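Inverse folding, one chain.
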């Protein structure tokens, strides 16, 4: 009878391990998520970075990108899935990817976003990319960012207010402006799986804390 407490402890530990393993499996199950985050990157800021200067596909002299899609990310209420197991290939064919270069300029970007996030959407590659385009086209970009011919400074609150004013139904609690240093980096917008605007506390809490940002011009 002396080993009964030990057996009980082993039983409890075993149950805990099984529960944790099951939870991890559920958290990374393709198609099991609560909402999307559409992440829009301010390309001129990226092109001024060390990484961007070497990216001729996005930042070459003939390129004039403003807001592009960084990705469409399945999200939980807290945290997010990534690199989910699917029956679909990890590799996105160039013949498919090129159809989306106007909003996601480069196979490297498209391939990475599919592997890390798209595999968790429950969609195949074409469906995921078409949904990404649909989400992008839903957003009305404020005029000040549509044709930014000169570098300017904008407040983070001001940017959010411009977006909510331009997009009826969008709430300040469902958008987050992020920064890299003192430059505008990304604008992240929360959408339901049906691509309707919604709030998202965790994403909103991750917004840039700098009050005023440099917004480099589109060149």
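Residues assigned per position:
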């Amino acid at each position: 009878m002396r080993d009964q407490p030990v057996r009980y402890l082993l039983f409890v530990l075993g149950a805990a391990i099984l529960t944790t393993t099951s939870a991890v499996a559920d958290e990374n199950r393709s198609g099991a998520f609560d909402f999307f985050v559409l992440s829009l990157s301010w390309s001129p800021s990226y092109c001024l970075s060390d990484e961007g200067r070497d990216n001729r596909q996005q930042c070459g002299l003939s390129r004039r990108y403003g807001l592009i899609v960084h990705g469409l990310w399945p999200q939980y209420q807290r945290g997010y899935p990534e690199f989910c197991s699917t029956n679909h290939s990890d590799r996105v064919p160039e013949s498919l990817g090129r159809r989306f270069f106007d909003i996601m300029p480069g196979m490297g970007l498209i391939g990475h976003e599919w592997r890390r996030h798209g595999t968790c959407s429950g969609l195949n590659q074409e469906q995921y990319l078409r949904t990404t385009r649909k989400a992008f086209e839903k957003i009305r970009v404020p005029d000040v960012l549509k044709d930014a011919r000169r570098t300017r400074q904008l407040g983070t609150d001001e940017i959010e207010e411009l977006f909510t004013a331009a997009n009826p139904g969008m709430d300040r609690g469902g958008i987050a402006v992020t920064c890299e240093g003192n430059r505008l980096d990304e604008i992240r917008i929360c959408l339901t799986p049906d691509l309707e605007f919604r709030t998202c506390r965790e994403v909103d809490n991750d917004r840039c804390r700098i009050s005023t940002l440099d917004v480099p011009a589109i060149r």
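The beta strands are 35-42, 67-75, 152-155, 175-180, 183-191, 212-215. The first strand starts at residue 35 and ends at 42.
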